[in-house]
Batch of 2 targets.
Target 1
Amino acid sequence: MQLNAVARLFYSPRLLLSTRQPGSLSSVPSCGLHATATLNDAGTATKSVPEKPKRPMNTYIRFAQSIRSSLASANPQASPTDISKLAAVKWQSLDQATKAKLEEEYKREQAVWLQKNAKYLSQLTDAQKEEIKLERQQRNEGKVKREQKRMLKELGRPKRPMNAYLRFCAQNKPAPGLSKEDNKMQMKNLGMQWKRLPEAERERYTKEAEAEMKRYQEEMKVWEDKMLASENVIAVRKKNVLLPPSPASVKAKKGGIPVVDSAPVAKPKKPTSAARP
């Protein structure tokens, strides 16, 4: 478990096996409902869902893409966001004749895509449809997690410190720019070094981690009270609660701000073998 955590710390691949594999599938797009990959008995990637026809760009996106390169050349210091804003201004001032022409192009491509997509959907098996549904669900869940992470970062949520082992690895991390295999080997070596580490050295990392965790708990308590007082209850009530509300949050409750009870809900006990029919 610790080795996996370290691997994520120093090597974080952003592509899932279900969307891209090295080699023959490296050109498969990772967005949209495109072909997904599975491993056969030989260990090679094979397509399990055929590639879906690409939906045509709408009128505005079509126009923005057509002028993006010229806007970037004319404004070399502009960020991608600035370029998008400039494209929006250009779109607002575009004459109706040009907009109508772009709309006609979009409608023609949309009609062709609807036919191709209908044929594509009719050829899918029930298993492939279920796989696409699962992939869409995983993407949506990932989007929710990213949005929640972004929200917590904007709200200034304290960052959880590393444990003793991860602190050891961070201080002895391998050189950057390693290949995936070399990085895995480095992580394996760090794990063996940790096991051979003298007890006194390991205790030093443990005490440092405990001190950081104590500081983190204090910061979390202050942050949670601040969130409760500012009515950002959702920020601390979805698997983020570290400590129960302090007296400061009780005062916030008296002031009319709803405070959700942070006491953990007891899970139902599993029936023993004797109680089973």
Target 2
Amino acid sequence: MNDADVSKQIQQMVRFIRQEAEEKANEISVSAEEEFNIEKLQLVEAEKKKIRQEYERKEKQVEVRKKIEYSMQLNASRIKVLQAQDDLVNTMKEATLKELLNVSRDHHSYKRLLKDLIVQSLLRLKEPAVLLRCREHDQHLVLSVLESAKEEYAEKLSVHPPEIILDTDVFLPPPPSHNNAHGPSCLGGVVLASRDGKIVCENTLNARLDVAIRNKLPQVFQLLHLF
């Protein structure tokens, strides 16, 4: 092989090596571009995720705000209904109390009423010994019916008459009057307490009227749609 052939082969090898090097360089360039694109895509996805999380957070805040507003509206409606119910009860009680004032002036009917209150309270309590409180104004009437009330209670339950002590240290509020229309008052009745003074049964006419009238009114949830 002469020098020309050797030179020719060397040139071919150089071209081959150069071509292979260029191909490798191209491969490296493509790989670097792909990695760059992947990183860019990851950044985009991370930004999208961040935006989506922020949207979901604000959406939850809106839902919570809606629930709070709805709850406030519902409570406002309930308050309106309860206020209307209280106004109606008070109006009906005032009308009824005016009629019952006539009863308190009739001692015979009033004594019967006080006796019934005591018996009903005892039947609810079913306790052998209680402390009884009343208005100071009613004390003599309560004393006049106390024994017969005990006997009536004992007869109804077939037990011994209970021990009832009239508490003269604590009295219920006085009867309502024109001079003290808004002050504490009681249209008669009795309160039975345990021997340590804890109230266990209230049976004033005011309390009975309040319960009786409210039981005749529609339930609150049935009126909510009106407001």
